[in-house]
Amino acid sequence: MPRGLIMTTGTTLLGVVLFAWSLIAFSTFPLSITQALPLIGWGESSTMTQIIAQIRVPRALCAVLIGGMMGLCGALMQGITRNRLASPALMGVTGGASLGLALVSSGVIALPIAPPLAAATGGAVAWALVMTLGASWSPDAARVRLILAGMTMAALCAGLTRLVVLLAEERALGVLNWLAGSLANTGYADVRLLAVTALAAAVLAAFVAARLNIVALGDEAARALGISLVPLRLAIFAGGCLMVGVTVTVTGPIAFIGLIAPNVARLMVGADYRLVTPLSALLGANLLLASDIAARWVAFPSETPAGAITALIGAPFFLFLARRPL
């Protein structure tokens, strides 16, 4: 059996276990997996079954979709920049999306714009600035310059977001809570929005995966083999901003999944993006499911935001990668 299939199957099975555990883990109500079985047609429904269906199922589905899109977004960003440190958080896209949404949600900028569009626009502006400052459009640019530009942009956007909260204190309480990055208040409306976005992201990934394998050879080689780099970059740019914008709208900023998942995927299946992209999505989904479970456990019966758990995991992982040659 091919190694990629073995790794993908194992990751999928782990995801099924984590999803089932997420439905019943660390609840103030006594929940068990048998109470969830009526959701798939086994056994009789009860009050606890309805609690699982209305609260835990959409939360777990959101974790799968958000984690999957963040992992996929990180893989696409790393592929198009040929930089394994590239990710939505370190490239400033998550920070830009958070700032865009905070500006509109708090009323500092009074525009009749939907929250996902505001977040996507903020992420797009931040990403464009990072790519420009990091000279990423040039094939001769140093890769570390791009990451430094991204980290600077992320810090700037974080500071400006806090300033927005201070300037609009009365209307920004919800923004402050949202900035923690929690799955606690997600519902089926969020699942529908995320599912449509995830479907579009999957189509994009299937379309560009083989081309990213050629881009890895370098810009000149890619052009010689017939790859149009500008449309490819624009497609990934638009898709990445959409994914980040929608996920930030639903849960707030959740960092480092886009950094961890693609790098682990490459260790598991190699550098073929036809395998790396789907496995990155699966690993991202598993990572956020596990982080959400851990977030409930840390201060049970209170909850810690899942974004804090991913940061605790991602910060040392980034330091480990940063010590290795780019």
TrEMBL record:
Its main location: membrane. The keyword Repressor does not apply. It is found in: Cell membrane. GO terms for molecular function: transmembrane transporter activity. It comes from the Bacteria. Pfam families: FecCD. The keyword Cell membrane applies. One of its GO terms (cellular component) is plasma membrane. One of its GO terms (biological process) is siderophore-iron import into cell. It is a multi-pass membrane protein. Keywords: Cell membrane, Membrane, Plasmid, Transmembrane, Transmembrane helix, Transport. The chain crosses the membrane at residues 12-37, 57-77, 89-111, 117-134, 146-168, 193-212, 305-322. Belongs to the binding-protein-dependent transport system permease family. FecCD subfamily. This is Iron(III) dicitrate transport system permease protein. It comes from Ketogulonicigenium vulgare (strain WSH-001). The lineage of its organism: Bacteria, Pseudomonadati, Pseudomonadota, Alphaproteobacteria, Rhodobacterales. The gene is fecC.
